[in-house]
Write a structure and sequence with these properties.
alpha+beta; 440 residues; homodimer
Chain lengths: 440, 440
């Protein structure tokens, strides 16, 4: 591959890298299900994860608390200082790996440790946030932790129930927290920036032999279900052509087009992931074909054009076979751009820290940064996922990549510290935004 | 449509047609499940169907018996005369229509009534057979009745069990028959021809505005399952192209080719009727796609070439995406040509009876004639299926078409009677075949 940069080889790992990885593994042992890593929102094992992180945070002199949404929060510096947030999530899917989410929190603590060990103090405080919920497992809705941080955990969400009929509010109480204190979970007005480290959860960095990627946007998503309705007929006695109304054949033509169009549209990913033919049988022409459609792009316009094309194509492929179409949209989520200033700063920090230029990429998956960006200028740094693997017990990270991320984080803080004009502008912007929000 | 022939309008229906249809409806009331027509192999309601047919057969002077396989058999004429068989099946699928199978038996009785009413005797006997089993519902294997008639009901089949664990042998005993007498169920050596009337169970005749079709072959069938194996990956974080191993996209390209190739290959029908993506999810690239394939053609060579092409194409579509393929064949059943002499004779009879030329077609579905043809020269006449509907309570026939079929049957018998050279040749051929079989 042209311009490939073998980055991991250039980075020497250190004791702090080994400690970060060991901490992730230690947190992975906090599980609701012995023998695997399953740690859902406000479950018993989350107490143990909090206890470990609290210990590490306190050891470096941070003030630690758990907000009413179950987010673990540690402050390094004074409460009234401008505050830089570093966070990610502590919950996992069922039978998860050890790094998805957790690594970003552990790296936040490690950065505080670096700062504490350094001679020069920072002109801002650092708050490390371990979000209580991002995966959406327990209440079939993701981002509960970061939604609380931005003050958007609404009544409808609090009224949701898990599979045991426990409401979010009750889960909060069972965990020992008070849902009436949720307003106090909203991030401090003094916060001015959010930074998140996360594993890529995809194969791109690895395929390009890169350790890190600076995220410039989180892709928007459309999720739909398309229902092709044809007519069941005998597979043997119904000749080919106009006497068939084959829902499956129509849908197959459409699936091919979903792939073909996405292949030719830069940055677009489009996937038909799950299909079914209902009560179909091998010797019966399919009367129905239900298919999911997942379309993502960092630019909403490109995504919308793609979705419109796909729907039109599905109609056409259906009409050619007397097959009708009904489509429902489950999700239409706009893209979330990361803050341009921060993304540039992070790229420069990455170059300075590792000697290699920053690779900028969009995130095809949602992250807490997507929610926090509603309130704070945000940026993300991806670490390569070996084998592209995530949401799997074998999910891992390369020590060299963790070291590179740490170095990039240290450099990012240093540049913020040293570039007082940029820092002042970011703080002023955040303050102006707060004022504007209050008047809105 | 060019050359369309509106046939039904040219045929005046008569009392005998109304009686045939009424008899089918009366038989449809013999059911194991009140409120619908469900009459499986050797079930209690089959006794009632036998009783009705026996009454009609005896009334016209036929000798009636039930063989050890549960086939109802009625002989008109002397036992030692050359014997022409007319038959179809008396069992049904669950919640069936009133004509599939039954109509062929009722028309056989009606033809005997015509012969009995006519002044001139025939130089051969007529045996009407109501096969006990064709649909394969009770023992998940079709054609048990006709297999007994040709002496191919083997030990493995007799050992099969239904969903209640009842073996075929026990079912025979429960019905009041003796399985040790199965050898006597084999058709008489004096039989020389088999004729079957059946509804088309497809839309072809209706689409061409034809009442009847002469069947020249029963299509061969291949039934397979194709398993496309790709790799599950995140639909959002895995870019299009070589990092995806999308089993569903590969399979979709293949499904499109299955249809395209069949559209261009005269007489071929190919259907992917049932598919599944296993544990797939909308936001995960499909790791697996399992699809059925059903391919039929009246010429085995054309079917084999098609199947080979489909497998090769599936491999290619998979290889382009890193998707592997495993295929298993469930059925590879050769085509069964109908007897050319009889088919021609039936076509001439049809022309004489209705004034319209015979439309020759192959049958995409299996029929008892396919089994009986192993032993006797056989031919079939299809009656148009309004709406292409069968295996459905709304399945029906047009009275004009039934009348046309009856007239064609009468004319067929008359031509056999009058064309003594052809009759003698058919009888001699059958006799020679018996001898050859005994020496084999």
């Amino acid at each position: 591959m042209k311009g490939m940069v073998e980055e991991s080889a250039t980075v020497q790992t250190t004791g702090r890298t080994a400690r970060c990885i060991a901490r992730c593994r230690e947190l992975a042992a906090c599980t609701d299900v012995p023998g695997e890593t399953t740690r859902t929102f406000l479950s018993p094992s989350m107490h143990r994860a909090h206890a470990l992180l609290t210990e590490w945070m306190c050891a470096v002199g941070m003030t630690v608390w758990v907000d009413a949404a179950g987010n673990l929060r540690g402050l390094f510096g004074t409460a009234d200082a401008p505050r830089l947030l570093i966070g990610s999530h502590l919950d996992t899917i069922a039978n998860a790996g050890a790094f998805d989410g957790v690594l970003g929190v552990v790296l936040g603590v490690a950065l505080v440790e670096e700062v504490a060990a350094a001679s020069a103090a920072l002109p801002f405080a650092i708050e490390v946030v371990g979000f209580s919920e991002e995966e959406g497992v327990r209440f079939a809705k993701p981002f509960l932790g970061s939604l609380a941080l931005v003050g958007e955990l609404d009544a409808a969400t609090l009224a949701r129930t898990d599979r045991n009929g426990v409401r979010v509010e009750a889960a909060i109480r069972e965990f020992g927290l008070d849902p009436t204190e949720l307003p106090a979970a909203v991030v401090s007005d003094s916060a001015f920036v959010y930074l998140e480290f996360h594993i890529e959860q995809g194969p791109v960095l690895e395929s390009e032999a890169r350790a890190l990627g600076v995220v410039d946007a989180i892709a928007g998503q459309t999720r739909m279900t398309l229902d092709f309705i044809g007519q069941a007929n005998h597979a043997g006695t119904t000749p080919m052509g106009h006497l068939r109304r084959d829902a499956l054949a129509a849908a197959a033509q459409w699936v091919v087009e979903v792939e073909r169009y996405a292949n030719e549209c830069d940055g677009l990913v489009a996937t038909v992931g799950k299909v079914e033919t209902g009560t179909g049988a091998g010797n019966v022409i399919a009367a129905e074909f239900i298919a999911t459609l997942d379309v993502r792009h960092a630019r909403d316009e490109a995504r919308k054009v793609a979705v419109a094309h796909y729907l039109e194509y599905a109609e056409t492929a259906g009409a050619a076979r007397g097959v009708s179409l009904s489509a429902t949209t489950q999700l239409d989520q706009p893209a979330v751009p990361m803050d341009a200033t921060l993304t540039e700063l992070l790229g420069e920090a990455k170059l300075r820290a590792t000697g290699g230029p920053a690779h900028t990429m969009s995130s095809g998956a949602g992250h807490d940064a997507m929610i926090v960006a509603r309130r704070l200028p945000s940026t993300m740094l991806f670490l390569r996922s070996p084998g592209g693997l995530s949401h799997h017990p074998d999910e891992t990270v390369l020590p060299g990549d963790v070291e590179a991320a740490l170095k990039t984080g240290v450099e990012f803080l240093r540049r913020l510290r040293d570039d007082s004009a940029t820092l002042a502008r970011l703080i002023a912007n955040a303050s102006a935004r707060r004022k504007k929000e209050r008047h809105a």
